[in-house]
């Protein structure tokens, strides 16, 4: 159980790093959803399944609204991906 909690914590931090280091909203939302799912999984492992479900529903609704709004403002024909050197530099800078 301890290894599972450590794995969830590591995935949560990596999801937050993916959100913070990526300038493109298309790929940043993937990190946001990953962090949300892992955080809810962490709550389920603690025995708080109803709180986890409510948080996931609220976060999912909020994330979709913010994602649609930011995508409509940032009409990028070639968004930066996680393999670009700028994004890797951002990630290393945050670490």
TrEMBL record:
The keyword Cell membrane does not apply. Residues 1-20 form the signal peptide. Keywords: Electron transport, Membrane, Mitochondrion, NAD, Respiratory chain, Signal, Translocase, Transmembrane, Transmembrane helix, Transport, Ubiquinone. It is found in: Mitochondrion membrane. The keyword DNA-binding does not apply. PANTHER family: NADH UBIQUINONE OXIDOREDUCTASE SUBUNIT ND6, NADH-UBIQUINONE OXIDOREDUCTASE CHAIN 6. This is NADH-ubiquinone oxidoreductase chain 6.
């Amino acid at each position: 159980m301890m290894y599972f909690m450590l794995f969830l914590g590591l995935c949560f931090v990596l999801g937050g790093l993916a959100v913070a280091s990526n300038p493109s909203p298309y790929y940043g939302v993937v990190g946001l959803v990953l962090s949300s799912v892992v955080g809810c999984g962490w709550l389920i492992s603690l025995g708080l399944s109803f709180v986890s479900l409510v948080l996931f529903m609220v976060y999912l609704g909020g994330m979709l609204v913010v994602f649609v709004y930011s995508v409509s403002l940032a009409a990028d024909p070639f968004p930066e991906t996680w393999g670009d050197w700028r994004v890797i530099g951002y990630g290393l800078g945050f670490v």
